[in-house]
């Protein structure tokens, strides 16, 4: 199930993030990318009043980042996305906003309170690819590869 996340609502529930931090959105997006790398679940996170409104350069293949325009807030953008989704029952909305949770449930979407999802993120470290030991080639391996590709190994 794809996640549709109320970004600032989630930041407010994160023990190590602060809405007062000017980089709070970017820090959350990094956490969401890590979560996506582990779960392979697609994520859309919506923040209030970005400059300019719309899809952000912070987006990547697994995490879409959207900033609401001045004419709307994140809740309105999320509600509209729920209503327009081809299968809202496939969505999981992350928010602690009661009105937004009611809209999501009325359309059949699942709802996870922001505090519960924050705890999931707190237990999510960097992707395994960033922590795994990297194999180290020794000189003999390099010489063998050079020979396989028709190169003459250097003299040691």
Summarize this structure as a short list of keywords or feature phrases:
single chain; 156 residues; alpha/beta; Rossmann fold; 6-stranded mixed β-sheet; elongated
Q: In a few lines, what is going on in this structure?
A:
The chain has 156 residues and is α/β, with parallel strands linked by helices. The chain has a single domain, classed as Rossmann fold (3-Layer(aba) Sandwich), CATH 3.40.50. About 6% of the residues have low confidence.
Question: Could you explain how this protein is built, in words?
Answer:
With 156 residues, the chain is α/β, with parallel strands linked by helices. It has one domain: Rossmann fold, CATH 3.40.50. The chain is built from 7 helices and 6 strands; from the N terminus they run βααβββαβαβααα. It has helices at residues 7-11, 24-39, 74-84, 98-106, 114-122, 128-131, 139-148; strands at residues 3-6, 43-47, 54-55, 63-67, 92-94, 110-112. It has a 6-stranded mixed beta sheet with strand order 3-4-2-1-5-6. α4 links the parallel β5 (92-94) and β6 (110-112). It is elongated.
What is the topological layout?
Layout: E1 3-6, H1 7-11, H2 24-39, E2 43-47, E3 54-55, E4 63-67, H3 74-84, E5 92-94, H4 98-106, E6 110-112, H5 114-122, H6 128-131, H7 139-148
Parallel strand pairs: 1-2, 1-5, 2-4, 5-6
Antiparallel strand pairs: 3-4
**Alpha carbon gap, first and last residue:** 55 Å
Give me the strand/helix succession.
EHHEEEHEHEHHH
Using the coordinates above, name the CATH class: Alpha Beta
Low-confidence stretches: 126-134
Shape annotation: elongated
Kindly identify the CATH topology.
Rossmann fold
CATH architecture verdict: 3-Layer(aba) Sandwich
SS-based class:
alpha/beta
Average pLDDT reading: 83
> Cα-atom Rg, whole angstroms?
21 Å
Number of helices: 7
Which percent band covers the strand fraction? Answer: 5-15%
Tally of domains:
1
> Percent of residues in helical segments?
40-55%
The tally of strands reads 6
């Amino acid at each position: 199930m794809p996640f549709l996340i109320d970004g600032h609502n989630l930041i407010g529930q994160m023990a190590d993030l602060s809405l007062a931090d000017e980089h709070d959105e970017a820090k959350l997006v990094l956490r969401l990318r890590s979560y996506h790398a582990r779960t392979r679940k697609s994520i859309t996170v919506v923040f209030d009043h970005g400059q300019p409104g719309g899809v952000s350069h912070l987006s990547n293949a697994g995490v879409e980042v959207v900033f609401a325009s001045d004419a709307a807030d994140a809740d309105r953008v999320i509600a509209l996305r729920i209503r327009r989704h081809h299968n809202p029952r496939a969505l999981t909305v992350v928010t602690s906003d009661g009105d937004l949770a009611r809209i999501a449930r009325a359309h059949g979407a699942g709802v996870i309170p922001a505090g519960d999802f924050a705890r999931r993120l707190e237990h999510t470290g960097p992707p395994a690819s960033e922590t795994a030991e990297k194999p180290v080639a020794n000189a003999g391996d390099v010489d063998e590869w050079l020979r396989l590709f028709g190169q003459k190994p250097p003299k040691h």
